[in-house]
Write a structure and sequence with these properties.
about 375 residues, Jelly Rolls, Malonyl-Coenzyme A Acyl Carrier Protein, domain 2, 2 domains, globular, binds succinic acid, binds cobalt (II) ion
């Protein structure tokens, strides 16, 4: 896909990173010219009925809100509380629609390791999820209809206690705009915002990012290290001397244990290996669909040579130096680094550059449902 210079309102991608990313909001009119969304409402409601789809329905009555997790049925949209203002949110549209995956590729100027997913919201007039802030950066791209966005750089981020959604107790809008099809608003993390649907069937696409907390990354790293540890030795005390208090944990014991624990060490390569696995690990609810009728290895190679291959929409592939990771695993393939890089960066390998040397590994990925034939 050719680069869309208007996506960031004519600002260069490096300029955007320098001046806006994680710093300040950016409103872009006509970010994607002619954009009117990726999915029709009826198809979205159908998707939300599916067990494998992460859908939420936010219903609103005055200042009170409730939240219903999917799968959703038609009757869920009819409020029993005398109000019919609601918003449907569906996550991971990029897993369910090829056009969703293609849209995310326009945001390739942010590393794939930071990307989370594409969410879509559908709201009736007046619908929204309330004034709130997110911990992550987001690009809010308007599909069909119009949405009024109010934003505020306020420091007071106190939430209404006990609410089923994260709603700000006080919200003082500082700027507001009505966004129409193809308009886009970038918001850095922790920027207060409120989006209210103006017309019927307003659909907004959120390109969301992720940034783990220190606590999360450290905890996960320790889990990784636990699986990797292979330490020698056992506690010993041939010099044991009589203790006054048999119940006391003695100093000598503490020192020896401390040096045993100090054997837990790691280096940069452990961090790289951990990150490759952790950042590509599929979320718990994501599963892969192995081919219903897998073709033989020979047929696979012929098909790949003529049609190319691409990552399954749910697949996540990253690399550092010579190490490639796909869906939580290290890629066990020597050579073909250039093509693995193409696959990781663009999610596909064109037929004309396909190399048979990598077909053994590709076939395994195909059998696991990580890879599809045809670009
Ligand atoms: C929405 O699309 O209604 C909510 C998106 C957001 O505020 O993060
Ligand atoms: Co938000």
């Amino acid at each position: 896909m050719p680069m869309n210079k208007q996506l960031l309102g004519g600002i260069g991608r490096d300029e955007f990173l320098r001046d806006y990313w994680q710093k300040r909001p950016l409103l872009v009119r006509n970010a994607i010219l002619g954009f009117n969304g990726l999915i029709e409402p009826a198809a979205l409601f159908e998707l939300a009925e599916n067990e494998d789809v992460q859908a939420r329905l936010v219903r609103q009555k005055g200042k009170s809100w409730d939240l219903l997790n999917g799968p959703l049925e038609a009757s869920d949209y009819q409020s029993k509380r005398g109000s019919n203002v609601w918003t449907l949110l569906v996550q991971e549209l990029n897993h369910h629609l090829p056009s969703g995956e293609a849209l995310l590729q326009q945001f390739d100027f942010i590393p794939h390791a930071r990307l989370d997913d594409l969410m879509v919201s559908y709201a009736v007039p007046g619908g929204g999820v309330g004034p709130h802030f997110d911990s992550y950066d987001v690009f809010l791209l308007q599909g069909r209809g119009h949405r009024r966005w109010q934003i505020s750089a306020q420091d007071d981020l106190t939430l209404i206690p006990g609410a089923p959604l994260r709603i700000l107790q006080h919200f003082t809008p500082e700027q507001e705009w009505v966004l129409g099809p193809g308009d886009m608003l970038y918001l850095p993390p922790c920027y207060a915002h409120n989006g209210i649907a103006v017309d019927d069937g307003c659909m907004t696409y959120s390109i969301g990012f992720r940034a783990p907390t220190t606590q999360e990354i450290a905890t996960q790293f320790l889990v990784y290290m636990q699986d990797k540890l292979e330490l020698e030795g056992r506690y010993q005390d041939p010099d044991l001397v009589l203790q006054v208090h048999p119940a006391e944990i003695g100093d000598a014991m503490i020192e020896q244990m401390q040096s045993m624990i100090a054997q837990v060490q790691w280096g940069r390569e452990d961090v790289v290996d951990f990150l490759g696995r952790y950042l590509t690990e599929p979320k718990p609810h994501v599963y892969f669909q192995p081919p219903r009728r897998a073709v033989s290895f020979e047929k696979f190679v012929l098909a790949a040579q003529s049609k190319g291959v691409r990552l399954a929409p749910q697949s996540h592939m990253l690399f550092h130096a010579e190490s490639y990771y796909l869906n939580g695993e290290l890629v066990a393939l020597q050579g073909c680094r250039d093509l693995l890089q193409v696959l990781a960066d663009t999610r596909r390998i064109d037929a004309r550059v396909f190399e048979t040397a990598m077909s053994g590994w590709l076939y395994e990925a195909y059998i696991d449902g990580y890879l599809l034939v045809g670009v």
